[in-house]
Amino acid sequence: MTEHTPTIENAVVTPYGSGTGLLVQPRDGRTDLSALPPTEVVRALGRAGFLLFRGYDAGLEAFSAFVEAHSERVTLDPARSFHGGTTAQKVDAGYDSVGLHLENGNSPFAPTITWFYCQKAASAGSQTTVCDGYRVWDALSPQTRALFDARDIVYTRRVEEAKWKGFAAFHLGTDDAASVTVEQLRELAQGDGETVIDPLDDGAIRYAYRIPAVHATLFGPRPAFANSILGPSNHYEKPRITFPDGTDLPEAVLTELAKVTEEQTEELDWADGDVALIDNTRVMHGRRPIVDTERTIFNAQSDLDTQLLAA
Length: 311
Prior knowledge:
This protein has about 300 residues and is α+β, with helices and mostly antiparallel strands. Helices cover about 25% and strands about 30% of the residues.
């Protein structure tokens, strides 16, 4: 352990990968995730960007309890299947590779942290990828940094009536999705950035979500290039991504982003029972192609408890 590696009581903490990520393993047989002090877990996350917990007695119930112990609010997507009560959702994004993105980063509903629980690891390949936005920003060309320093990006897409009403109803805590209004959806869309929501004639809506591609993070002002420019769109229509004046991002810039992010990408080689915690304001994640279809991963997303952050 280096002098810069944070400590967590009842755990052995060592570097994971080529960046600042950390591997957290039990000390003295303490294999219960609840034995880890949340304030120390959060402090380590702020330093590392992502944590991989290995060797713990993690099941869906223990995973859900671990999420809730660190979260002010758990946010879910009703378009995904539910498991483990109201916290965990199965990752069901097909078998192709998944581009780097922030969880829900192309909408005003992005959580501040995202979680993964590996119930069954793949026998080969199928790794989750992580990419530190701090490192990406430092590696981009001066011209590209200047471009994104000066201009926000805008995600625009159409969402079918059943999907936006179901999403809003879930977060409003009502079973009556049919009665949900566009105004209620607008009231929910109060996260970072600026969101414009327009109703369409067929009951669908079109939203435009404007936000910087590079920004401060949950833990400080250092700029991170962390966004969903290269990401997928599962369960919803793929958004168009432009600058605020409606112009597309230049192909040369997209090519540079793909190259630099791949150079900075690390892989989580899952083992059964692993849990990962990712700063969703700093570290993008994705996936290599699924080789073993028996691989089973669950996801949770939440907002970090502000009292833990302050501590």
